[in-house]
Amino acid sequence: MTRLVVVGNGMAGMACVEAILKYAPRFDITVFGDETHVNYNRVLLSAVLAGEKAAEDIVINPLEWYQRNDIRLHVGVRIVDADPGAKTVTGDDGSVTPYDALLLATGSSAWMPRIEGLDKDGVLAFRTLDDTRELIRRANPATKAVVIGGGLLGLEAARGLQVQGCHVTVVHLMPTLMERQLDPDGGAYLMGKMEELGIRVLLGRTTVAVLGNGHVEGVALSDDSCLEADLVVVAAGIRPNVDLAHKAGVAVNRGIVVNDHMETSSPDVFAVGECAEHRGVCYGLVAPLFEQGKVLAATITGNKGPTYTGTVQAAKLKIMGVNVFSAGDWSEQNAEPVRYEDRALGIYKKLTLRDGKLAGAILVGDISDSHRYMEWLRAGADLTDQRRHLLFPPPASDAGLDVAEMADSATVCGCVGVTKGAIISAIHDRGVNTLSQLKEATRASTGCGSCSGLCQDLLRAVAPEFEEEVKKVICGCLPFAEDRLRDILRSQRLKSVQEVLEIYGNGHGCEVCKPALSYMLDMLWCGDHDEDRSARFINDRVHANIQKDGTFSVVPRIHGGVTSPAQLRRIADVADKYHVPMVKITGSQRIDLLGVKKEDLPKIWADLDMPSGQAYTKGVRMVKTCVGTDFCRFGTQDSTAIGIALERRFEQLYTPHKVKMAAVGCPRNCAEATVKDIGLVGQEGGWQVVVGGAAGKSVRKADLLTTVETSEEALEASELFFQYYRESANYLERTYDFVERLGIEKVRKETVYAPEAVRQGLRDRFSRSKAHAVDPWLEGREPRHPTQFIPIQSLEKVRA
Amino acid sequence: MNGHRWVRVTPCDSIPLREGRLVTLAGRDIAIFNLGDRFMATDNRCPHNGGPLCDGIVAGDSVVCPLHAWKFKLETGAVERPSSKDECLATYPTRIEDGIVLLGLPEESVP
């Protein structure tokens, strides 16, 4: 068996090994990696730093993959020497390993410019998973961070650190951000976007020294100014790792020189990825290494034939809300530029054409057409017929049209190199119906993920039983599915509605997304968010239910529906005093005072001296009870006591939609607990906790969540479900739709039958929210704003 | 063309950002909105069913009636939703002087 030794356990090396395995060769493979991890997606480190992904999420080849393919993996071992004469490599652990074929996939390292003081504690690179973890550990709120370098990596690091709470300044040597990808105008648009995010950018300055006594305290710049800093990240570029190749006597320029078959100057030594130099170019992006890996796999397995002829360079900035794409040669020399810009929207597009073909593209602010341009570049398409539609495609009559027009050879996933044809055969031959299955079958959309939309379009057009995995977005202002949005708000630590709309939405929002966001922020931060009443429906601005004539209804809380003569007298007095036009007993065992003027609300609340029943909001309404054991001759459980306890436990908390509850003392169900969002049904020896019932537009019998013995257990089970619903349901989704959608088995598994740590998490977040909850009617005494309840009195009187 | 009589109405900070408030001038109920960079004023009554627009959610430079979600452009008073309707709200010019919002009433409505 041929012994193949791979030096480097990164994306390039393992992509090549995956390609080699497809040839089913008789190879004995050993992999050395100096990092202590399995192969992960380095492109997504910025997403880990920004909290959008966990370290586990970016693993490409888990340990089982190495085992399954009989690959010996040595992590944490650096190969320090290679001897092509003896055909051995030597590790820093002293091990000597013989090979028949040697694959160098050593990648590159962060380039450290010559700056005084780079050895101080607090100076880090941003290149590996360990770097990323160390950055997360050190990036605390209010940490002052300086990022040296305003290229792709520097900007992604800057945003990640900012999300972690740091105050970030980017110092960039050149007068343009990302100058290798952007022209000065594009760079200016990008700079505007970064500054809108709150990241300071200093251009045309070099860092001359890192200051501090042992630990970083600041940096000195070439303009004689100084910046305070607790953390310095060097992202000034990368250099191919060529030391080993050098020692092995392999030809090296900037990188390890390879020919079109990916062979080096030394027989049986090959190189792939960032460490390789092909036709004078060292690539630092992900797409070329997959293409190189495929060619090399053919060469190495004795199927020499395919050649690598270079890759059109393309780059996307991976910062949510900041869209930047650049590809090809966008310089205007000997080219015809075509431009579009809109300062207000922050959109800049430039294409360059040579001989009627696309030479390069820059997109800032809107990169929705990047795929089209990439395809034109790859194919060298003649654009004579499309000159009028270069920047704006003619409107497609249906969504499938674009994909239908693509050639089978056209690349859909640029990272992994998957063509439309390959996707279609996977759909037909392997019964692929969902995006996850497609990822599994072809690896398409597993790199940067930006082709997922196109993959979905293809699935929709071709797969017989296509299942949409993308959920409905909230509204046009904020084009995200709700679970995705919750992840974003959490990871980006966003606490105000307006901030979310400005970064991820259209800047102003509407009556659909604003209340939804208000709810999510309140729930996610357990009440510790920036409350913005302008984003609330009127009911939640004045804590009463608006009626058809613009007056309001007032429903005080009567826990469990149990009242007293004194309370009833007070309610009657208030109704008299304010000439309340209608007093009504509600279906929820409460009393509704209808037809109250907005300006009278604070006075009525004060006179009632009762808490709000919150009959106007998406929140905890009431617990309806029967008389239970106190008087009823059939009662088996004390339903009034548990009902009151349940109402007190959950009151003043907000929910995706209203939550109506009931507790009954026996299965006769007099208070209709089996058609409530949460119901407690007493029986001999215990309680049934039922959830997801409805008796509104539709009628649905609640599902049994669990059966327990004691009242406290019943309350605890209810609490787990209640908090789970708050966290996982979509806004305006009642429990009966939520439970129906998930299925009671899943609900049980994630609440009462969840591992203790999960249940504890639900309980903790519930308690934190509860600690922030207050009776909203207290605002009657101390309004949030002087005119919260009263109309404006004009300074100048004008008579009619 | 008729001129306007400018009325000093209220300090800017008595209307919170992106909210509306009701003011009654010369017998007209008028909703004034604070859009941050400017104030806008329209009739308060929704032409559909009389809902109070001052209590609506402001969506950019539009307002949404709290009763049945009719949506109006604050600049022109035109109905945005439902799109089939061509009712129009009266609008009033505003300006700011020394931190006070002034509202222009049509001359003929002021004695």
pLDDT below 50 for ≥5 consecutive residues: which ranges of chain B? none
Strand order of the largest sheet of chain A: 3-2-1-7-19
Distance from first to last alpha carbon of chain B: 17 Å
Strand content of chain B: over 45%
Structural class of chain B: mainly beta
Largest sheet of chain A: 5 strands, parallel
Bulk shape of chain A: elongated
The portion of residues assigned to helices of chain A is: 25-40%
Radius of gyration of chain B: 13 Å
- Read across the widest sheet of chain B, the strand sequence of neighbours is 2-3-4-9
Order of helices and strands of chain B: EEEEEEEEEEE
* E-strand count of chain B: 11
Low-confidence sequence ranges of chain A = 396-400
Average pLDDT number of chain A: 91
> In percent, how helical is the residue content of chain B?
under 10%
Largest sheet of chain B: 4 strands, antiparallel
Strand content of chain A: 15-25%
Give the overall silhouette of chain B: globular
The two chains with the largest interface, and their residue counts, are:
A-B, 32 and 40 residues
Overall pLDDT level of chain B: 91
Would you write up a description of this structure?
The complex is a heterodimer of chains A (800) and B (111). Chain A is α/β, with parallel strands linked by helices. Chain A has 25 helices and 40 strands. Chain A has a 5-stranded parallel beta sheet, with no helix packed on it. Chain A has a 5-stranded parallel beta sheet with strand order 9-16-10-11-12. The radius of gyration of chain A is 32 Å and the shape is elongated. The termini of chain A are far apart. About 1% of the residues of chain A have low confidence. Chain B is mainly β. In chain B, strand 5 and strand 6 form a beta hairpin. The model of chain B has no long low-confidence stretch (mean pLDDT 91). Classes of the chains: A alpha/beta (800), B mainly beta (111). The interface between A and B is large, with 32 and 40 residues.
